[in-house]
């Protein structure tokens, strides 16, 4: 299995509850390495651009409002099979459906305020990394 990079965010509900370290430790314990990280308070416009794929969904406004409501940690994670591994350690979108030991099961408060984001495929990972980071900010 090849070494991959994926894009991750620790969402405002989690930064507000001081969970940046706990969530990052869970990612690291799963074998993922943080090769880029910064704290951003994204604008409404940045949130709309990042989540453009969801713009027809009924929750789009709520999602963009939430994501621009406080600080977020944007990260690039590296490791074997990193994209799928991150999705596994995140857990299901709705914390009520998330497996024991996953980040969303442990920390998420609702389907909207679900503590973390993770890319779902190689193409979206590359796009999402490029949305937030320049090459010199990623140090493997
Ligand atoms: P995931 O983050 O698991 O990839 P999606 O890509 O389907 O999930 O949705 C993006 C984000 O939109 C979710 O993480 C969540 O914050 C929000 N979201 C998804 N579905 C709902 C919903 N039914 N109501 C409110 N917010 C939602
Ligand atoms: Mg998604």
Write structural notes for this entry:
- The protein is an alpha+beta fold and 140 residues long.
- It has a single domain (3-42, 73-137), classed as Nucleoside diphosphate kinase-like domain (Alpha-Beta Plaits, 2-Layer Sandwich).
- The protein has seven helices and four strands, in the order βααβααβααβα.
- The protein is globular.
- The protein binds adenosine-5'-diphosphate and magnesium ion.
Give the topology.
Layout (H helix, E strand, L loop, with lengths): L2 E8 L1 H5 L3 H10 L3 E8 L3 H7 L9 H8 L4 E9 L1 H9 L12 H5 L8 E3 L3 H11 L8
Helix pairs in contact: 3-4
- Outline, from the CA principal axes? globular
| Number of structural domains | 1
Low-confidence stretches: none
Strand content range: 15-25%
Which structural class do you get from the secondary structure elements?
alpha+beta
What string, H for helix and E for strand, traces the elements in order?
A: EHHEHHEHHEH
Predict the CATH topology.
Alpha-Beta Plaits
Identify the bound ligands: adenosine-5'-diphosphate, magnesium ion
Helix content: 25-40%
Helical stretch count?
A: 7
CATH architecture label name: 2-Layer Sandwich
The total beta strand count reads 4
């Amino acid at each position: 299995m090849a070494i991959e990079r994926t894009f991750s965010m620790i969402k405002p509900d989690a930064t507000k509850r001081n969970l940046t370290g706990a969530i990052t430790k869970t990612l690291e314990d799963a074998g993922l390495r943080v090769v880029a990280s910064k704290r951003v308070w994204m604008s409404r416009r940045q949130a709309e651009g990042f989540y453009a794929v969801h713009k027809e969904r009924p929750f789009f406004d709520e999602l963009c409002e939430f994501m621009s409501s406080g600080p977020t940690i944007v990260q690039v994670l590296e490791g074997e099979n990193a994209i799928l591994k991150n999705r596994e350690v995140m857990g299901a979108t709705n914390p009520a459906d998330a497996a024991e030991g996953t980040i969303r099961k442990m920390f998420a408060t609702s389907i909207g305020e679900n503590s973390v984001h993770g890319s779902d495929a190689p193409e979206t990972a590359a796009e999402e990394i490029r949305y937030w980071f320049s090459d010199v900010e990623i140090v493997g």
